[in-house]
Each structure stands twice: as structure tokens, then as C-alpha cells.
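Re: the 188-residue chain
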Amino acid sequence: MFTLPGTVEPGAFDRPIAGQLDLSMGGKSIALRNKEFVFNHTSQDHSRYDSRRRSIYVPVIRNHLYSLFEQFDFPDPTMPTGSRNQTTIPSQSLAMMNSDLILDCSDALATKLLNAYSQPIPRIQLAIESVYGRRAEAMDIRLAREFLSEFANGTQADASTPTNDDERQAWALYCQSLFASNEFIFVR
């Protein structure tokens, strides 16, 4: 991992990327009493998928599967499965672009980047390294600067001067695009 000039706390950008993942190990995956998570059309659904723990701690409820699991080829929990399908379909990209989880993580990463550096190039380099696990290439920096510049030009057309919130929103959208990219979704 290369270091950039600046005053970033050591370990500030170690995994998890956006600082949203609960790394605690063990414990219950469901904060419900026994059988409360079982429901049918006549009972109340108590299952929730708002946990920020690793997916191994997310409950698998047969009649209410987590929507992100469904999008990314989670096997049917009612049937034994010898192998898992691997697909690349448009709904996966849409899920990554519109998921509340991804939007929250994009905002959190943008805030970390804005707090870490005052200049765009070190922020871009840090974003690429954090999300993709590699150094930013010249094309990455050029495309990011173009995106941020176009966003700034669009907000200036709406208002006389861009605000700090406009800058944060631009960086959040940039981070969201990184999370929605194939390079982030598929590990090589």
C-alpha cells in the first residue's frame, strides 16, 4: 500500500472501505426470539436486513430473502445446491446504483475523502486505492476530474456559487460510481 502526502490517521483507510462494516465476530445473527423470524401471510414479518455485519451473519429466511442476496446469485434456500450460479445481469448494476446500503457507503467514503485531503488528486488516488485495491492510473484520475468538473459546472448553472454540500454530493456520486463498477463487484 503506497502512502500519500498529508495528515491522514494511520489505518484510516484500512478495510472496511467506507467505515460502515461492523467487524464484530460471533453472536446472534437475528436479534429476535426463537421462531419470531418465521412468518406467513397471516403473521407479522419481524425480519430486518439493516445489519452492517458481514453476510455470514445475515440471516437466511426462506420466505423473505435479503434482496441483495437475490441479485447476486444466492442459491435457493429451500433446495440443496451443489454449485452456485454466476451471472452478470443489468439488475445487479441497478441494485448497486440504487441500494440504500451503497448510497450510505458512498456518502461515508466521500466524507472520509473530504476530511483526509483538500486537493482532488490525492482524494482520487485514495478512493481508487481504497475501493479497487490498486494504484490510480492516469486515466482514472483524468476521468474522475472530468466527472467532478462536469458536476461542478452543472451545479453552478443552478446556483451562483457551489457550496460545500455540492462538493460532498459530487464526491458521493463519484464514490457511488466506483462501488457500482465491475472492477469493484467482481474479484479477479
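The CA atoms of residues 72 and 92 lie 7 Å apart.
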